[in-house]
């Protein structure tokens, strides 16, 4: 199996810390967790391709993982060059979900990240 490379984050080694923070956030987001529990088996978003551009935070990571649990294919970037939580982005990348985000992106990097998530590998 080939290594997953469809991401760019500040430091992938932050993924474990991000995973622990996501686990905490899941306990604070009962609505999304209830949706996962109720609909994951049905895969209501199977076949959907969702490109997101929203603050890449731990809470957004819970949303992203919920979309994936419901069957969607997801690609993500941050909507703000300063709001990314690098450990959240790393945790999402470590799950094999394409994400292009790091805190302190330049404007040029921001637009590059946006372009990366808009370009799906198979069209």
TrEMBL record:
One Gene Ontology cellular component: cytosol
Family matches, as InterPro entries: Adenosylhomocyst_ase-like_sf, Adenosylhomocysteinase-like, S-Ado-L-homoCys_hydrolase_CS
GO molecular function, one term: adenosylhomocysteinase activity
Gene Ontology biological process: S-adenosylmethionine cycle
UniProt xrefs under SUPFAM superfamilies: Formate/glycerate dehydrogenase catalytic domain-like (SSF52283)
PANTHER family reported in the protein's UniProt record: ADENOSYLHOMOCYSTEINASE
The protein's name: Adenosylhomocysteinase
Gene source species: Candidatus Thiodiazotropha taylori
Source species taxonomy: Bacteria, Pseudomonadati, Pseudomonadota, Gammaproteobacteria, Chromatiales
């Amino acid at each position: 199996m080939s290594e997953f490379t469809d991401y760019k984050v500040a430091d992938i080694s932050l993924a474990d810390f991000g995973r622990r923070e996501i686990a905490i956030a899941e306990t604070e987001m009962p609505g999304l967790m209830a949706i996962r529990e109720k609909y994951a088996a049905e895969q209501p978003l199977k076949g959907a391709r969702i490109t997101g551009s929203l603050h890449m935070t731990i809470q957004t990571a819970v949303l992203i993982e919920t979309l994936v649990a419901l069957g969607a294919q997801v690609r993500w970037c941050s909507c703000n060059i300063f709001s990314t939580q690098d450990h959240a982005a790393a945790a999402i990348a470590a799950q094999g979900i394409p994400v292009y985000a790091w805190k302190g992106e330049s404007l040029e990097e921001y637009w590059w990240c946006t372009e990366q998530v808009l370009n799906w590998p198979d069209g």
